[in-house]
Amino acid sequence: MNKRKVGAGKEQIAAAYLEEQGMKITERNFRSRQGEIDIIGYHGKYLVFVEVKYRRDNSKGSALAAVTYQKQRQICKVADYYRYLHKLGGNAMIRYDVVAIQGEEIVWIPNAFPHIYVRG
Fold it and tell me: What is the pLDDT along the chain (120 residues), one digit of tens a residue?
């Protein structure tokens, strides 16, 4: 099975898990020139941007460690564009979560990182 199919399957598992936890998913695989966000939804009063990472085992590091500062920065840039497109002002309560799937274990980290302001 190729990486893209595996990734799509793990994103489906993550989405189902988040829905079980009460998240209302509004978009999956939102793409722009700036990049992609795996899952976007609402959890309580928060608009949540979710990055899903999967690792079969620890041989290439943990799934959580794969969400580097550079990846976080890119997610924030895409989130800013999403908010602009949907006319969500600066007062919208947003959160950046990570769902790390390591083997069969699912770890959800709400508010995994703060917003990183990016110019241009």
Answer: 566 776 678 899 999 999 999 999 999 999 999 899 999 999 999 999 999 998 776 666 677 778 899 999 999 999 999 999 999 877 889 999 999 998 888 999 999 999 998 775
Q: Strand, coil or helix: what is 64?
A: helix
The residue whose two tokens read 């800013």 is 80
Stated pTM of the model: 0.91
- Taking the C-alpha atoms of residue 99 and residue 106, their distance in angstroms, rounded to an integer, is 7
**CATH class given for the domain over 3-109:** alpha beta
Asked if residues 52 and 96 have their Cβ atoms less than 8 Å apart, the reply is no
CA distances from 96 to 35, 59, 84 (A): 15, 26, 17
